[in-house]
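Schema walkthrough. Field components (list of strings):
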Amino acid sequence: MENTVQLNPTLEQIVLSPQQLLAHWQGHRGLTRRLIEAYPDEHFFSYSLGGMRPCSALIDEVLHMADQSMQGVISGNWPSYENGTEESPKATTKQQVLDQWDRVTEKIDAYWPQISPARFQEVDKAFGLYEGPIYWFLFYLIDNEIHHRGQAYVYLRTLGIEPPAFWDRPQA
Amino acid sequence: MENTVQLNPTLEQIVLSPQQLLAHWQGHRGLTRRLIEAYPDEHFFSYSLGGMRPCSALIDEVLHMADQSMQGVISGNWPSYENGTEESPKATTKQQVLDQWDRVTEKIDAYWPQISPARFQEVDKAFGLYEGPIYWFLFYLIDNEIHHRGQAYVYLRTLGIEPPAFWDRPQA
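Field assembly_structure (string):
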């Protein structure tokens, strides 16, 4: 009698599943949200180092790219990327940023199951600008967030504030 | 006559392949190498902001974790993580760091094909410290590199030096 567990062969060969990638991204987004919360209101839109953009602008980029990416990831119909939209105007307070952040978190969760399994390997031109497989573009979004959040950690440290722990992200 | 291309069904369902993950990691490592090259020798081991570690220490962590991870990723036998080993002692010049970096690049390429396809989903405790699936640990290494490199970008900007372009990484 053959009583070994018959795993789905695809499950034995995947690096990570779409659900795990979603959890990975949302884990990073949760950490970035805690970074925004920790950031002093009076410095969020103004403080910077080395001629760089303030934290608000770094977060704006990350937030709006994620927001506007979802439709294209699913359908291949890409809007032109805009740094602020009717649905999500440029925030002028930290609370507005956090509210937009939470809206995008829900949007990603809602759109994600609509990504067809074959879609991750399809080559597309995101926002008419970023050409490559969809998995590559999704990692670009995630990596860009990590990159800018790391920069905001330095801003925070020079303001004398301890950032949230980098490793503190839930697993899938 | 059925003449549509019969793709391997697993290839239609994967987010990314092990080869693509390797290329993703090495693409980031290539960018980090250019960051190290761009960093002024006289500041590499000393300059910092906000009481943080200098660039050399951030890079040391990234380099040694990658170096010492490979054996465990493949076999499940983890060394204790050490910030400097006999094979790879603590560097005292930027050129030594670059040489170690290149050695680790070759090591990752050499070990990678030995990772069994099922291994990415196996739960392990990397270095006896980081518990989770292997894919998760590999992303931890990559993300930690992006995080610290982003911090080094700020150091560089405050030194008046333009860092290499973040998006300039080859695709798989």
